[in-house]
Amino acid sequence: MDPMEPTQRPNATVRPSGETAGSLSGVMSAAVMSTCVFHLSGGRLSEAEPLYRGALAIWEKLPERIELATLLSNLARLCLDQEKYDEVVALSKRALGISQSIAPSHPEVANALNNLADVHAIQGRHGEAEPLYRQALAILENSFGKEHPETAYGLSHLAKLMFLQARYAEAEAMQRRAVVILQKAPRQKDSILATSLNHLADMTALHGRYSEAESLYQQAQTTWERLLGAEHPNVALTLNNRAKLYRKQGRFAEAEPCYRRSISMWEKTQGPEHPNVGNGLNNLALLLMDQGRYPEAEPLLRRALNIQEKKGALSTPLSGQLSILSLHFAKTRAATSTPNPSFEGHCLLERRPQGWNTPRWLPSRTTWQKCVTC
């Protein structure tokens, strides 16, 4: 599953209130936050981050309020997209402390808990993530009710974790519940709906229900295009997922333009060195290798590896070694045109774009053992 959450939850912007709203600092902060939202809606994360930090500097000079916790959580999600996990933890813990001191059951407590749980889930500490997700969900249910869109947001987080734990039936049921809630919600919640549709499509694709998955991906893509524009990174994510689906079905001619367009969109909005670009290049290379187009695949894999190295992705042995093996296999086949059965079906694993805003490999333990011994 490769859900890339919007870096900022809908309607989670800082709204100065009371005497703060009437102060010069409050007005300045509100203006800065409006500009942040503008850049985020266009996927321009590098432009949004310094503005967030500028707003934070303003709020640091004021007495602690719940708005500060909201801003810290929003900045944490932005850092999550950039894989700055230590900073995500620090920002989220601070947001958690502020919000708990104001009201232990405030929704901002749930937001901070979800951010912390996301880091645990990304780093494979599922046992630490689950109680945090459940605590956040309980707060949202108590604050808004079981049929509220904010509750659906919490359900979607927990469903993703269950999916990673191979609790597929539970995950799909929970994600479907989130989608049903969101489909009844006002349209300002459509961004959360699009994310949940994308997650549900991942789940149905895993079980071979390709027609349903394709329809769900299309719904997610259409929603994101309407909300965020046709060039937004979230649209690119859905295109990438559709390409994966086509590749599984052997629909290579349909998969390739989807991969190429998603890479182009990520390059434009997130920069040529962003992990999503590297993951997209790797996926496109594997599609080309499926078709025996090894000379075309090799430069794509080299560029993907360079991006991984610059972002520190090769510090994870699994992702690094599998990418290196795939590169070696491509070179060998390009030079000899001789199949290597030890690699086929094992090393040609798809590289996922930021799932929970992070790249990850999802092979089985058996597959990895076959890779390292071939």
Question: In terms of topology, how is this protein built?
Answer:
Blueprint: H1 18-22, H2 24-41, H3 45-60, H4 66-81, H5 85-102, H6 107-122, H7 126-144, H8 149-164, H9 168-183, H10 190-206, H11 210-228, H12 233-248, H13 252-270, H14 275-290, H15 294-310, H16 317-336, H17 365-373
Helix pairs in contact: 2-3, 3-4, 4-5, 4-6, 5-6, 6-7, 6-8, 7-8, 8-9, 8-10, 9-10, 10-11, 11-12, 12-13, 13-14, 14-15, 15-16
Quick recap of the structure?
With 374 residues, the protein is mainly α.
CATH-defined architecture of one domain: Alpha Horseshoe
Q: How confident is the prediction overall: mean pLDDT? A: 77
Strands, total number: 0
Structural class: mainly alpha
Keywords:
mainly alpha, 17 helices, Serine Threonine Protein Phosphatase 5, Tetratricopeptide repeat, disordered N terminus, 374 residues, globular
Give an account of the 3D structure.
- The protein has 374 residues and is mostly helical.
- Among the domains are: 1-103, Alpha Horseshoe (Serine Threonine Protein Phosphatase 5, Tetratricopeptide repeat), CATH 1.25.40.10; 263-374, Serine Threonine Protein Phosphatase 5, Tetratricopeptide repeat.
- The chain is 73% helix and 0% strand.
- It is built from 17 helices and no strands.
- It has helices at residues 18-22, 24-41, 45-60, 66-81, 85-102, 107-122, 126-144, 149-164, 168-183, 190-206, 210-228, 233-248, 252-270, 275-290, 294-310, 317-336, 365-373.
- Helix 7 (126-144) runs antiparallel to helix 8 (149-164), helix 9 packs antiparallel against helix 10 and helix 10 runs antiparallel to helix 11 (210-228).
- The radius of gyration is 21 Å and the shape is globular.
- The protein starts with 17 loop residues before the first helix and ends with a helix.
- The model is unreliable at 1-44 and 339-374 (pLDDT under 50).
